[in-house]
Batch of 4 targets.
Target 1
Amino acid sequence: GRDGLQPRFPRFSAHFRWGTATSAYQIEGAVTEGGRGRSVWDTFAATPGKTARGETGEIACDHYRRYHEDIALMADLGVSDYRFSLAWPRIQPVGAGPANPAGLDFYDRLVDALLNAGITPVATLYHWDTPQAVEDAGGWMSRDTAHRFADYATLAAEALSDRIRWWITLNEPVIVTLLGYGLGTHAPGRNLMLGALPTAHHQLLGHGLATQALRAAGAEHVGIANNHMPVWADSQHSEDVAAAAAFADLYNWLFADPLLTGAYPDLRWLDRGLPEQAAVDLPTIAQPLDFYGLNYYSPARIRAAAPGSELPFELVEITGYPRTASKWPVVPAGLRETLVGLTERYRDALPPILITENGCSTADPATAEGTIDDQDRIDFLHAHVAALCGAMDEGVDVRGYFIWSLLDNFEWAEGYGQRFGLVHVDFETQRRTPKASYHWLRRQLAGTA
Ligand code: PNW
């Protein structure tokens, strides 16, 4: 085969953390088991026209029942860590009150099985599955949700921090604000446009309060997972450069500056902005973090919008790069640019970085031998690991790399149409088949490539 020609990883410290990443709604299924409450994603996916082919996470990868098999796959792969999320509506079915013992029990068993397999659990508290009852009370548009979230963090950490040492508060608050509340293409499907900005502040406040709650309940390493895009101006004309800066303020710095500098970027172009009392919350938001989680997929190219548009910028298609199955351009240099950019922007205020997500979707052709040839994923992962090495050579402090995702899973509005897994899932039979990338990664991690 092509094995002799496959790309190889450079050498890494033995302490570097290698992991795979997933999230609860995307893999667990079993949405009514163990007293789980409804989440905004149950509601959104059940609404006609919101997800491709009307697909939902009702069954997903049935990980709730098959977690032993999935942990065995990770143990065999040789990763040191596993990033997963806790479903808030399993632990607090209506987002308030005491913990639901049956919900906690699932994560108890999952964590024990991970530790038995020698895999370090890295738990995300919130990967977008807000309890529907919390949404009905205003969701992230309401300041009270930040306090609800911190109460949930306390319950989760009191039950699990004896075995979970690594905690992530929020996954990609930017996507919740922009797609969930701004454009409505994700749950809860609201179309508030720039009126969604309070959800940025309330999530960040929730992050700060949850960080305090986690530490009080014994959590050892606390961080957040932010999505970042390097932003490229479409030309050097001052209007395009200014538009790119405005987009970067909204997409990147709105969600990172308050955490790392204790101040919001100056969003002068916004007419409807953050809540009045935002400034008083900044010290809470700027809790020291033990690590900064970076989710990286691709850059954005930006030009000035036509006069009179609501937003000062427009996205321009990036050409001249290969594309993933989901049409995202493959730009490994963008990972290095992001890592170096964060390090230069925040300097001593930036804690060590964990790359908490990176990966791609592929078309996964099955070969005649019955193997799944995802050469594009091998090339993608190799190039991004090389880019992260380049950033480390420039002095960026990266401590780990988590691949999105272990399994093909429910890719939100795309349903099951986009496959991000190292392991193929047949959603009719729930059969797991490691792809070529899995076998390749296993050899890299074993150092026997
Ligand atoms: C991330 N965008 O989501 C999430 O953290 C994962 O749950 C998801 O499966 C993965 O990336 C792959 O998409 C994103 O439209 C969803 O820019 C959408 C966007 C970015 C990230």
Note: Residues 120 and 258 are 29 Å apart (CA to CA).
Target 2
Amino acid sequence: MCVKIMVIGAGQMGSGIAQVFAQNGYQVLLNDISTEYLDKSISNITGRLKKLVEKEKMTAETMAEILHHLEPTLDLTRAGEAALVMEAATENMEIKKKIFGKVEPYLAPEAILATNTSSIPITELASCTKRPEKVIGMHFMNPVPVMKLVEIIKALQTSEETYQMVYDITVKLGKVPVVVQDSPGFALNRILIPMINEAVYSVYESVADVKAIDSVMKFGANHPMGPLALADLIGLDTCLAIMEILHEQLGDDKYRPCPLLCSYVRAGWLGVKSGRGFYSYQ
Ligand code: CAA
């Protein structure tokens, strides 16, 4: 019998994580608060798998099998069936704590509770549960099916057994696990998001326009996409939330979010997911 996991949150990251687990033989319960979010997620995953079939990178039978491994559900109590529960909801401490509180009573005693947070302290999340030794950070990158890295973040309370199991699962998914400290932004976002913020400042201070800034980094630093296109892909609200955490917790003014980034988020220009960010996606 294959191992069952639950992914909580069917947004961009949750959908990608669910797809990767299903592609690697796990039975996946995909949970969110509305049927609309779940339908959208399954439709996005189906679209991505269809593209792989069209490119002859996957057979139609394999695609059917993967979709069979994915079960959308509104019922959080079904977390009790899972060996691993992956929280991938909005990047907000209060929302994550609320989800942890709601799901904890249903968890099997041996189940691991992992979070895909990109910057929220795992130690604090773990401390709001009665099983902190089974809480861990498992930070996937966007787009999840493509990107190899998974940052593994141990809370102060995480047991060696939990860590080893999550490390082994990550390898089984074909990803590259890298262990990092439970420090603000962990390692990837400590480096990446200030670079994106600096790119936004460069537009704000008229150093060059959006396309030029992206071209500089693509053709001058060999990045696969420019920092502003990448910000649109990550979500400008997520970039701002991470920048605010770095600023608040590390204190230095060099982490101050660019006012232009704040304005775009206030305007609802969040990037690819809202149809407009530094570029238009209509
Ligand atoms: N889902 C699944 N597959 C996708 C995809 C998606 N959203 N987007 C692209 N792909 C696949 C394509 O199907 C294609 O697959 P094949 O090689 O099998 O044909 C492959 O990726 C390459 O795609 P494209 O040819 O369309 O375009 P590209 O070569 O420009 O690659 C990209 C697109 C993979 C996104 C690349 O530009 C890239 O690596 N960009 C940087 C992404 C990055 O830095 N991500 C980390 C963000 S930080 C983060 O996520 C952490 C956080 O907490 C904020």
Note: Residues 189-272 form a domain with the N-(1-d-carboxylethyl)-l-norvaline Dehydrogenase; domain 2 fold (CATH 1.10.1040.10).
Target 3
Amino acid sequence: AIRRGVIAIDGPAGAGKSTVAKRVADSLGFAYVDTGAMYRGITLLGMRTGIAPSDSGEKLTELVRSAELKFEAGSGGLRVYLNGEDVTRAIREPDVSRQVSYYARIPSVRQVLTLLQRELAVADGIVMEGRDIGTAVLPDAEHKFFVTATPLERAKRRLKELNQEGYRLDLDQLVREIEERDRIDSSRSVAPLCVAPDAVVIDTTDLTVDEVVAMIVAKVGNT
Ligand code: CDP
Ligand code: CDP
């Protein structure tokens, strides 16, 4: 059965999932869940505790069982706490971005986070965004969108944000990092990044945020 009032938005890094999902949720009065923040939280925890993606199953079990990580759904998005410390900003740092795909391809990590994501989506009226929401987490979602853009455009968007936060990164390097993350996310064995057969694909390369939001809201309103 199809779950009414459930919207899944997937796509690669920098395609505009978070920005668009938040705006769509606001305009419909739906809750918004950014699942990437959860993978970033696990990654930060691993980096801080010295547990690497290549470590033994036992160490990784320790990582995913850790009760030190808390997720709190709020109006501005998901807040992430590590040992009581608010790490909502820290999980966005470029170092975490470079590591996250290696943690996200570990099956036990995906299993634990997928269950948590389904718990956050028990009530209807939700916009959830990530890589595998329409394909694996909420395959019965009423609406599925896959937003994408060229790697160059996505890197430019990310560079602009990072510059505003005071980071100095090179565009070519960012393009390479984004392509590498796409490659790992698309080729992993469990729930890889791919387009769900019933998803509406939106190429946002030449679109503004307003245009993408309007397309999604119109599609949702028409069915
Ligand atoms: O914000 P950005 O697009 O850079 O990435 P994100 O949405 O925060 O996701 C970070 C990483 O988490 C992705 O590159 C994936 O490796 C992983 N991820 C995933 O595997 N499955 C999801 N549903 C969401 C994120
Ligand atoms: O979540 P994801 O990594 O897919 O993207 P994001 O974190 O929402 O970042 C996308 C950035 O590109 C934001 O700074 C948006 O303002 C900008 N942008 C967009 O999202 N959509 C467009 N059509 C054009 C620009």
Note: The pocket of cytidine-5'-diphosphate (ligand 2) is lined by residues 11, 13-19, 157, 161, 204, 207-209, 212 (CB under 6 Å).
Target 4
Amino acid sequence: MTDVKVHVEKVNKSYGSNHVLRDISLDIKNGEVVVMIGPSGSGKSTFLRMLNQLETPDSGTIVVDGFDISNSETDINKVRENIGMVFQNFNLFNNYSVLENIMLAPVELGKLNKTEAEKLGRELLDTVGLADKADANVKSLSGGQKQRVAIARSLAMQPDILLFDEPTSALDPEMVGDVLDVMKDLAKQGITMIVVTHEMGFAKQVADRVVFFESGKIQESGAPDQIFSAPKNDRLREFLGKVM
Ligand code: ADP
Ligand code: MG
């Protein structure tokens, strides 16, 4: 096994005449926490979605966990089982209980039996601070609680890569901290994380590396100290001036 978890090389993607990813290359190491920042429309979500083939590149190479997912013959379902994704809008099943939401994927995919899935589900709910909500209906939860359930659900597949696309952007401000705290704990546990966020405090505190996207390009990347204290790229400086 190599230490490289995600290898992206010269990836391009267009929607019609809109060239949204331009020669993107990036390697992410096992256990690394990479935070992606950049203005709206710069291609961050498209990039993230490519890592589990929710989008396919027009050209270039994407290797995840040793699988070349830019090759259409690769069994993407095998790769996806190892990649959790957490979205801005939770994407939970509103008609199921909290615990049922968490148990669903591992049971359906035959990874765990029901007893095992329930045990793990309750442990994960404890981890995200929602042990008492196992039997609650998802509909009754606050946004912050829903997002913590969504994180627990993605962890139920025991992934080794977690992708987060603006996980706190849809939350009321007072809920953001609880979700970020859960993500900070995960980062400490050594899971590979790729996080798109506008939470610069989180990026500073938790990221091993910050990647700045703008106009479909990685304009600059580096350790958080460098990115926030000594940005080199003009567009990055301008962006930071607006968001900080
Ligand atoms: P970000 O996440 O940084 O805000 P996106 O990756 O969502 O950026 O979008 C990058 C560009 O691609 C935008 O111009 C957006 O309108 C366009 N885009 C994204 N998804 C699609 C799609 N499915 N079809 C057409 N255009 C899209
Ligand atoms: Mg986006």
Note: The first helix runs from residue 44 to 50.
